[in-house]
Amino acid sequence: MSHLEHAAGPGGFPIEAKPPLRRFHQARWDEPLIFELTQPGQRGILVPPAEPAVTEAVAGAPGELPPGIRRAAPPALPEMSQLHVLRHYLRLSQENLGFDLNVDVGQGTCTMKYSPKVNDRLAGSHKLADMHPLQHPDTAQGVLEIYWRMEQILKAISGMDRVTLQPGAGSAAIYANVSMVRAYHAARGQGDTRDEIITTIFSHPSNAACAKTAGYKVITLYPDADGYPDLDSLRAAVSDRTAALLITNPEDTGIFNAAIAEFVDVVHQAGGLAVYDQANANGILGITRAREAGFDLCHFNLHKTFSTPHACGGPAAGASCVTAEIAPYLPVPTVERDGERFFLDYDREQSVGKIRPFTGVGPNILRAYAWVMSLGAEGLRQVAETAVLNNNYLLSKILEIPGASLPYASGQRRIEQARYSWEELAADTGVHSEEIGIRAADFGVHYWTSHHPYVVPEPFTLEPSESYTKSDLDEYAAILSQVAHEARTDPGLVRGAPYNLPVHHTEHEVLDDPAQWAVTWRAYQRKHVTGTP
Amino acid sequence: MSPVIGLIVNPVAGIGGPAALKGSDGADVQRRAIRTGAVPRSGERAAVTVRRLLARLPDLVLLAAPDRMGERAALDCGVAGPRLRVVIETGQVTTGDDTSRAAVAMRAAGAELILFAGGDGTARDLVRGVSESVPVLGIPAGVKMQSAVFATSPVAAAEVAIAFLARGGTMVRPREVVDIDEDCLRAGRLTARLHGHLAVPVERRRVQDRKTGSSQAAAGTAADVAAAFAAQMEPGRLYVLGPGTTMRAVADHLGIPKTLLGVDVVTTAGLVAADVTARDLDAMVSAGTTIAVSPIGGQGFIFGRGNQQISATALAAVGPGGIAVLCTHEKLAGLRGAPLLVDTGDPAVDASLAGHVRVITGRNERTIYRTRAAGG
After folding, report:
1. Are residues B198 and B228 in the same domain?
2. With the C-alpha atoms ordered B119, B120, B122, B127, is the resulting torsion angle positive or negative?
């Protein structure tokens, strides 16, 4: 039925049939910042006056506080009623294109899969939420048991011997791994001489960034003509200065490097360690493991493969997995079991110390644990198989769009994601990939192009995890097809997008300029209002 | 106010391509091409751009070179009367000098942007005429288009021009103009050189792909790569700096003047010799010298093109350990997987440089990249 035809509803009123593409329009509230909404004297909760006994008991307390920590003035918090706070955040939520709203397959490499709501309820339970990280382990046996069990699960999934769940994010896990690499070489008297870390241009950039942050020199390899990591380049890169290879597989192109064990061998022969970035392991769960490829360390992002929410930049959770040879260097404390009792072990002489305070991001570890337990081992493998099937189905749909292409490894399937190119469309129309992505947002979806530099020209990276149905993927492909058609027939329309979103184009320069960026209200006031340095 | 754009068409650009003449430079080649039935396409390609421009900028004013050098393409698209102004007069047979003169006249007449339809040879004529003094953008219509001054297609050229005229949509950047000597190429030998730079509008690509805010705005730029190299220079050591903007950034960092298209010899303390010849350089370099170069964008030559002053003798004297290659990731990515090329004229030196090179791509950052002898 064409979308112009009308069907009669039960009451005889014409009801327009659902159009092939939804006519999306986002709410626009032009909502001020919460600090601008403050009204002196307004309150969300009126706290009853303290009882006389309490007042008396604490009367002298303020005087006992050291002067340095006493407030001279009350904190500058917004003053608002509950309704106004609720309304403010609901409005902001309507100006967002989050996972729960859109077919979020365009955030390739991020693995935007469904985060089951029931797991949020578990994580929000008072049994966990009321815990304090400093309470005695004897009173936290249940939480420690979850940590311990999650470690056993990740050992089985990675094939490694020990796991730490302390890192608060994927990059923190990579940093933990780099720290352990250094400790390993230092223990052999080579901590200073092995000062280079090798990675590839299509590996997650966090690898290069964490290695640099830890003080290493970074050696980057470019792909061979087919887009695979180049083994000859690796051979040319390794030396007695090599501390480690940090590599992703499949890389951001979605191409699986079947020669990965040879890469590991080349690094081992040079005396370096091999570290597997499995931030996104969604295509290989239950199919292949870091251990079998010979890696010494690997890491997972629990907020990708293991379904915990991305939460707009955190809190996330990372897991570092290591062989027995690397285990002495794990961050402290480790979670150990002594018969039926769980305890924290700080007494680890060779440990790299702490990557972050305490033992890990409890709510996310619980969510990930619940997710794995609800699936079981066979379920995990089915997740991977479905994610790969979804990706290759979407791939076939995208490649039907004139002007879209899939550079490299011609004829080879991709694993869980794919990096496509609009190069032909851009040459025909002058419309760039970024502009196609923005116009797609007018239909309620979006995509991410690629890390820089654009090794694949006019890139876009799609990753349909296991969460999406065939009709979701059909809708997504239809939207890109429509926008590509518009680029050919009315390029000005595409280049002028978006039209249906609350915000048009933003000035990105301010985000790159330390003198201008403002991530807090106070910084905004200082840099843009009062002008005081 | 109506936007004012200059339009120059090289009427013979590209005609040597289908005739397998590898280029269209020189009246003799052009006659040979036409005899073989080659039809010039540059006017048509320019018209594609102009039609696209008119669709969005109907009040556009075109400053055109006469007749087949632009005027005819403009008339074909319906630009006439007060919206079309012809800037110079030419003889019956037009030459590259007419291109240079037209560009100068367009600049004087207030062109905000000059569009030219041609190839590398035409770009050279623009360099001779206006260099970096006015924004220029190439409509790809030649055989050789190694210079980084061309849009990816005639349609894309119009879109870049529209963004440029709209202000804020583009940044004007110096871009390299390189050209191959066609006589040598037909004789089976590649010799190319850097002829200068044009001021080219580059689209300010939207950065919605950013995953997180970055504090590394300068990371990855030529200035960043240059600073990384400068930081590791040793006092007292002799450094040979090749041509180009990346090497100029090194000199800028040291506060030393740089011959943009030439080879200079410096120490961290200052300039030792400017714009040296191969003979000068052979006498100056030794095992303790470092030769630093940056590849030609899009082409990938690190030796033998644009820097022939650095001879095989000099390269043999410093050895592979005395060679530093500086390049941004953006330029490496722009090679589309092609290797870096060397062609020093000495097969033994070429072979010693073939394989892989450690390219300086930033602070504490190197990239292993494949190199190949161009002749091999």
Report:
1. no
2. positive
CA angle, residues B52, B54, B57, in degrees to nearest 5: 115
Q: Three-state DSSP class for B260?
A: coil
The minimal CB distance from B208 to the residues A225, A234, A438 is found for A438
Whether the Cβ atoms of residue B128 and residue B34 lie closer than 8 Å to each other? no
Confidence (pTM):
0.85
Looking at the fold, whether B238 and B134 belong to one and the same domain comes out as no
**Average pLDDT in the A126-131 region?**
94
Does residue B122 sit within a domain? yes
Contact B158 A426 (CB under 8 A): no
Q: Which of B157, B209, B214 is nearest residue A449 as measured by Cβ atoms?
A: B209
Give dist(CA B271, CA B259) in Å, integer.
11
Contact A313 B159 (CB under 8 A): no
DSSP B69: G
Say yes or no for a CB contact (<8 Å) between A450 and B208. Answer: no
Contact list in B for residue A313 (CB cut-off 8 A) is 212
Say how far residue A529 (Cα) sits from the centre of its chain.
34
Contact indicator for B69, B42 with CB cutoff of 8 Å: no
- Interface with chain B: mutation pick from A452, A490, A506, A510, highest number of B CBs within 10 Å: A452
| Domain identity same for B87 and B187 | yes
In the predicted model, is pLDDT for residue A205 greater than 60? yes
Q: What is the Cα–Cα distance from A275 to A280, expressed in whole angstroms?
A: 14
- Indicate yes or no: CB of A508 within 8 angstroms of CB of B368: no
Domain count, chain B: 2
Regarding whether B270 and B164 lie in a shared domain, the answer is no
d(CA B60, CA B70): 15
* Cβ separation A221–B367 shorter than 8 A: yes
Q: Do A434 and B52 touch (CB under 8 A)?
A: no
Residues in B touching A266 (Cβ below 8 Å): none
Region label for A93, one of left (φ > 0), alpha (ψ between -120 and 50) or beta (otherwise): alpha
> Which one of A60-69, B6-15, B264-273 scores highest in mean pLDDT?
B264-273
pLDDT in tens, A133-155: 999 999 999 999 999 999 999 99
